[in-house]
Specification:
It contains 21 helices and 14 strands. It has about 600 residues and is of the alpha/beta class. It has 4 domains: about 35-100, Signal recognition particle alu RNA binding heterodimer, srp9/1 (2-Layer Sandwich); about 145-325, Rossmann fold (3-Layer(aba) Sandwich), CATH 3.40.50.300; about 330-400, Helicase, Ruva Protein, domain 3, CATH 1.10.8; about 410-599, Methane Monooxygenase Hydroxylase, Chain G, domain 1 (Up-down Bundle), CATH 1.20.58.760.
Length: about 600
Amino acid sequence: MEKKFQFSLSYLFIALAIFILLQNWLSPQVNNVSYSQFKAHVAEKKINSVVISSTLLKGYEKIESDKKEPMFPKALYVTPRIDDKNLVEFLEKYGVDIIAANENTFLRTLLSWILPTLFFVGIWMFMMKRMGQGAGGMMTLGKSKAKIIAQTDLGVNFESVAGQEEAKVELAEVIEFLKTPEKFTRLGAKIPKGILLVGPPGTGKTLLAKAVAGESGVPFFSISGSDFIEMFVGLGAARVRDLFEQANAKAPCIVFIDELDSLGKARGSGMMGGHDEREQTLNQLLAEMDGFEVNKGVVILAATNRPEILDPALLRPGRFDRHILVDRPDLKERVAILKVHVKGITLAPEVDLEIIARRTPGFTGADLANLANEATLLAVRKGKDVVEATEFEEAIDRIVAGLEKKNRVLNENEKRTVAYHETGHALVATFRKTAEKVHKISIVPRGIGALGYTMQLPTEDRFLMSKTELLEKIDVLLGGRAAEKIIFNEITTGAQNDLQRATDIARSMVAMYGMNEKLGQATYLQPANQFLQQGLFQQKEFSDQTALLIDEEVRKILEERMVLAEKTLVEQRPLLEKIAKVLLEKEALDDEEFKALLG
């Protein structure tokens, strides 16, 4: 096939450079002289002929052809023409041939207009070509930005996804439909049009969507919700239409919309009511999901960690029919996820992944991948050939408590205060039946503000907590300040985070869980977003008298539990001082050392 010529601005610059070089090479040798010097050269008979134009005098040694300038003259003298009435008489006196120049300025005028025009036209064509090539160019503004990924390029299937067994069972039905649709249509079943994956960040929603495409072997359209939105009104809706046109042409296929909340936020909440670009895009998405044919084989997968802000019309049956929770992994799933992420890592024989999984409650799949990578980096930094359990311990401390601050040096009084504070937490936890066991105590500063920490490990995954467990959790949090009061008869700012967490638990017990006799079995606060773990704007739905009563009951709980924590530490003061002194010397105690000190 013959290759079509395409204009490039570089060709214009190359041609211009060649023209300038040729002009310099072919131009005659020019000697610019003054008018008096020109006349002197005439008198010396260095000039045999003179060409007179309206502005210049050009002197030549010899003219080869009649009334024409030579192509390659030997020498040329040029001077500006001045008003000299005796010039012709002077030249005739020395026998100089006088030639009047016939000036034709048409070509010069033409070039002065054409060259700049061609130059700017070339620039315009070059810019339009570049803008047309880009995904966001002028020529493709209404085109979908979805990336079409072939099944062979994904390299992901359900074996690549550890844990999330319930979610995989739900998605397996979609895969079976894409492979054998006649099995479902025979009995009149309809596959869900849309499947919404809901869960905290990092739990593997995108990975599960890719695994579905990898297992089914169909084209996979991947796009983010924010890719639809532009500053130009109507472009988002145009991109939605284009996406569904491409999907229908490639059916059966999977369309995956990541971060659906950026596109599907409830309508009417924006500053411009129902006329802003985002809402027009959402309206088009709703229309398209209703419009494409049932059982054609186009499945819409979407992922979000903020389901509570999605538009209700998006979640009704017939659009996103099925909602699948992709939650944080439990202990068994964390072990499976760790096995996936340590496949390419050389582990020491003593590394027990189950112990590491027990130490990481609440970690998502992304957190565990980061943990394995951090442990490997620590081993490389130490020059080891294998990754040992100590590297995993350090990596967990680094992720949970923050980076160790070696340059933050505490004075002796501060160090002593922190040691008793952390020992207070550990001892109160030891003498509470429902408290999680102490795994590590440290007085090494970490992170932004942590001067020390006491790490506790749950014995099992928990989903419910009793009133007694919550109260004893408050005891452990207040144990640090209680130890300061007993030993130093003084309190410090080190308990700020402990007090905040204890207050949150007490307020939740009173105003959310119905665990207070005076306020009864009522709830006064809405729970925070369970996936983002952030409190949203809480609208007050109770009276000022109730608010005052809530504050009084929270304060009462904290005061009562503080008295109990102090009582425990007074009874165990010898142990408190013994453990704190050892902690001052070693700066960190693991669970075995702590148990040995307890006796």
